[in-house]
Design a protein that fits this description.
InterPro entries: BTB/POZ_dom, SKP1/BTB/POZ_sf. By secondary structure, the chain is mostly helical. The chain folds into two domains: 55 residues, no CATH class; 190 residues, no CATH class. Helices cover 52% and strands 6% of the residues. A three-stranded mixed sheet has the order 2-1-3.
């Protein structure tokens, strides 16, 4: 009954708040009590001596409607939608949810997004654009970053990336050093394992384990990792950028699109 009373109180609140998503301009009008209950960050902004409190408006950068819609669902039901893994860009969406929870102080959202991302990466290789977004936006010691580094490194050594995808990986600033540092220290595995042990108990990753070929979906011809100087990749988080190696094979493109569907940005 406590939950029912809390839900009821939101809709008895005559004070509304406007939330504006800066990236796509989407606006939400929600009860103030509900918004404050989503996050301590929102509560402090709306109840303190800030411009947001006076204007009853919150502007959220780096967030799109597809992410905030799930945030609202998660707040109502305390779980992610059951069909979230069938979304067109599940990796991108889950990374965005984890980053939202990190920025706006919603630890349970981070835990659930990490768990779902780990399950997806058991049968998908990390999309290059999503990895780039994770490395740019995720804290260096974060469990999310650790997970994507671990899975990407494993899939590289399994020869699971196409030439086009590998070219995209090579363009991520500092990519080869990040991978080498992770392998040498094993730090990413320990951070991820510790986090999962605390929050999940149902997922375990050995510091010496590697993903199977099946986990990376398919096995294109093996690529040799050259110690070339990586170029800069834009922060747009795009899974399928134009190839710099020439036209793609049609069958390869069809298979690849099932794993890393094109996206128009973050």
């Amino acid at each position: 009954m406590d939950v029912a009373r809390q839900l009821s109180s939101w809709y008895k609140d005559e004070t509304s708040v406007t939330i504006i998503l800066v990236q796509d301009g989407t606006k939400y009008t929600l009860p103030k009590q509900m918004v404050c209950a989503i996050s301590q960050y929102f509560a402090r902004a709306l109840e303190g001596d800030f411009k947001e409190a006076d204007e009853r408006t919150l502007k959220l950068p780096d967030c799109r409607a597809e992410t905030f819609d799930v945030v609202l669902f998660f707040h109502m039901y305390q779980r992610l939608p059951s069909d979230i893994k069938s979304e067109p860009r599940p990796q991108h969406l889950l990374v965005s949810l984890w980053l939202f929870g990190d920025i706006y102080l919603i630890p349970h959202l981070k835990t659930e997004a990490l768990k779902a991302a780990s399950e997806i990466l058991d049968y998908q290789r990390p999309c290059p654009g999503v990895l780039a977004k994770t490395l740019v936006s995720g804290p260096e010691d974060s469990s999310l970053r650790a997970l994507f580094i671990e899975k990407t490194t494993s899939c590289i050594f399994q020869g699971a990336y196409t030439e086009e995808e590998f070219a995209e990986l090579a363009e991520i600033e500092g990519f080869f050093k990040i991978m080498a540092d992770g392998l040498a220290a094993g730090k990413h595995n320990r951070v991820f394992a510790d986090t999962v042990a605390q929050g999940q108990g149902s997922i375990s990753h050995s510091p010496t384990s590697t993903a199977s070929v099946e986990n990376c979906n398919r096995r294109p011809r093996r690529l040799v990792v050259h110690p070339c100087q990586p170029r800069r990749l834009s922060k747009q988080g795009i899974c399928s950028q134009p190839s710099r190696l020439g036209p793609r094979d049609a069958s390869s493109e069809e298979t690849r699109s099932q794993q890393c569907p094109p996206t128009s940005g973050d």
